Amino acid sequence: MTSTAPQKLPPLPVLRAIDRVRAALGSLYRNLVPGHIALLELQIAGFLSQAISTAAELGIADELAGGPRTAAQLARAVEVDEEGLRRLMRLLVSYGVFAQRRDGSYALTRMGATLRSDAPVTLRDVSKFFGSKFHRSHWSHLTDAVRTGEAVGPAIDGSSFFEYAATHRDVGELFDRAMTSIGTLSTEPLLAAYDFGRFGTLVDVGGGQGGLLTEILGRHPAARGIVFDLPTVVDDLAAELEAAGLSQRCAVEAGSFFEKVPDGGDAYLLKHILHDWSDERAEQILRTIRLAMNRSTTLLVIELVLPEDDRPHPGKFIDLEMLVNTDGGHERTEAQFRELLARSGFTLTRTVHTAAPDCVLEAVAR
Fold it and tell me: To the nearest whole percent, how much of the chain has pLDDT over 90?
């Protein structure tokens, strides 16, 4: 379970201004340097990503949590070649992932601390998943996905991504932990931007381990909730809720959101669900939820919303992830969400932006 202690976030207008300045500076730099240099820098950024994944796999941040370590000490602790470690750390230090002190020892930075397994918002499993052989092998077939418009999993693994993850639990469990970690990145921004406490009962459809819902319930003692997901996902969740003291206010139900979802919610949450699916399948999910709702119920779709302009945006990366690994999944613009919701029997009433890339799309049944 995640912490329910609120964290102070910079004002949204400040973050938006910083984002615009960063995008402008990046564009200016790329326009000033020779084209081949700018492109090469983008290309070798993949090396940095893999280096971070290696640091996560080795548990370097956990070893540095107790204080600075020399190269020899760190190499012994994580059981690697000392010279190989020095070369890895030289790159990561130069980008601020770790720091090197005057005596040559290595230390954690604010950025590197997020690779700790016990960090409040840990990116260790995310980094391990993105750098895994499984994930890298899929992305090496991006050209095939672009040519065909189809996921590469069936050709490589003989099954879809979700089917493979269900039967190969080493991949599935790492993916589940990675997605839980990614979910925590947006929790504070979501809770700061939107008043979830105004609803009596919230149903988290496809809620996984219930991270967002338990945070909401922890901060709003009068609220109640239901976490709904596949049986394999929520098997052990009831015991965790009881240990967290939430079993009296939060129920767990298992099933498929393509077939039926629990009745009785004042609000239905869909966080990072619709982007996994084609418009046809997403519409099926929404129609299933629509059947469980009444005229006073609110639907809350939490997703990355693609901008209409050409500025960099995290959703543009994830959109390609959906192309490579899902059967028709994709990121959407606000206009596309509005159309999808309308076809499914909903009216989009407002879009609430947060300090994270995620938005809350609030809709009501028509």
Answer: 78
